[in-house]
TrEMBL record:
SUPFAM superfamilies: Ribokinase-like. One of its GO terms (molecular function) is kinase activity. Catalyzes the dehydration of the S-form of NAD(P)HX at the expense of ADP, which is converted to AMP. Together with NAD(P)HX epimerase, which catalyzes the epimerization of the S- and R-forms, the enzyme allows the repair of both epimers of NAD(P)HX, a damaged form of NAD(P)H that is a result of enzymatic or heat-dependent hydration. This is ADP-dependent (S)-NAD(P)H-hydrate dehydratase. Its cofactor is Mg(2+). It comes from Lactobacillus acetotolerans. Its EC number is 4.2.1.136. Residues 6-279 form the YjeF C-terminal domain. GO terms for biological process: metabolite repair; nicotinamide nucleotide metabolic process. AMP binds at residues 192-196, 221. Keywords: ATP-binding, Kinase, Lyase, NAD, NADP, Nucleotide-binding, Transferase. It comes from the Bacteria.
């Protein structure tokens, strides 16, 4: 059975903040990605995570991205992705987002091997873009020890990973492929398209009824990966957090599309805090 995601998910998930809290209560997230050519991808993910409200945001990227990252997002902490203390930082995180602009170099593969070794049951990992392409070539790179794994492929990335060609990506074929990947039944799949389908750990399928073609802009998925990570960090590693992230990303896109021919991913992040405020404290 397929369930449509509705606006209600936002009031259900987005909670009003309590006074006696601090940044440690809203989740720590580390985003890993951004090679020489794709620095923008990891910056857009970072903006999604910050706007979504993660308490602490850190970024591991190529050193050439440092100035641009800090100029745009001083809220984010930075580590050179070649720094030997990266594994220690990973250990202290609630959520890791890996892949936007990561590229598919030998070094990128090493990063995935390190994550697989280090990640633990207390953590959630969101795998996007290049990370998925590397895993498509070697399924052993999937970090099965994570408490929860969230895969966020677009249709071509899912084709590479599942071996199902795009026209044949039906819910039943996708669920079968997902079951084959799973060792522990801890994978959630966000299969992105004009109407994204989300598969939970029990095989339930959810469809996103909103969104628009103004959102067909490079960086839109990078931004979503950051928002998903931010929602999981803050609201917990549950399917509802992911559904709310997918829905609000498209809702922001639809609001902007009313008066803009093209929706810039960075502007989605810009309006996200205001939109979240509207839905908070209503439940
Ligand atoms: N500013 C930056 O730094 C940015 C950096 N980025 C980084 O670039 C890296 C490569 O990622 P990527 O997504 O650009 O390339 P790839 O995986 O080859 O996919 C494109 C191919 O798939 C096909 N396609 C079919 N269906 C599709 C669908 N529904 N949605 C999308 N595509 C679909 C499509 O077919 P076409 O119709 O164009 O022939 C095309 O052949 C990765 O690290 C990423 O993070 C980007 O995030 C952008 C902003
Ligand atoms: N025509 C469309 N209608 C609705 N949403 C779209 C459309 N085109 C793209 N999107 C959304 O934009 C995002 C694109 O993700 P992705 O292809 O990974 O982008 P990128 O890698 O460039 O950041 C997805 O969330 C997808 O649902
Ligand atoms: Mg992408």
């Amino acid at each position: 059975m397929m369930v449509e995601i509705t606006e209600d998910i936002l009031t259900k998930v987005i909670k009003e903040r309590k006074s006696a809290t601090h940044k440690g209560n809203y989740g720590r997230i580390l985003l890993i990605g951004g090679s020489e050519n794709y620095g923008g991808a990891i910056i857009m993910s970072t903006e999604g995570a910050i706007a979504a409200g993660s308490g602490l945001v850190a970024v591991a990227t190529h050193s050439m991205n440092l100035t641009a990252l800090h100029a745009r997002d001083p809220e984010a902490m930075y580590i050179d992705w070649r720094d030997h203390s990266l594994p220690n930082l990973v250990k202290n995180m609630d959520v890791i987002v890996c892949g936007p602009g990561l590229g598919t170099s030998a070094f990128a593969t090493k990063v995935l091997v390190m994550l697989k070794d280090i990640i633990s049951k207390k953590q959630t990992i969101v795998l996007d873009a290049s990370a998925l392409d590397l895993i498509a070539k070697d399924h052993e790179l999937l970090p099965f020890n994570a408490g929860h794994i969230v895969l966020t492929p677009h249709q071509m990335e899912w084709q590479r990973l599942s071996q199902i060609r795009i026209p044949f990506q039906t819910d039943s074929a996708n669920k079968t492929a997902l079951n084959k990947l799973e060792a522990e039944g801890n994978i959630m799949l966000v299969l992105k398209s004009n109407h994204t389908h989300v598969y939970d750990e029990k095989g339930q399928v959810f469809i996103n009824p909103i969104g628009n073609p103004g959102m067909a802009t490079g960086g839109m998925g990078d931004t979503l990966a950051g928002i998903i990570g931010g929602f999981v960090a803050q609201f917990g590693p549950k399917i509802d957090s992911i559904l709310a992230a997918v829905y609000i990303h498209s809702l922001a896109g639809d609001i902007l599309y009313k008066s803009n021919y093209v929706v810039r991913p960075t502007v989605i992040s810009k309006i996200l805090p205001r939109l979240m405020k509207k839905y908070s404290g209503l439940n």
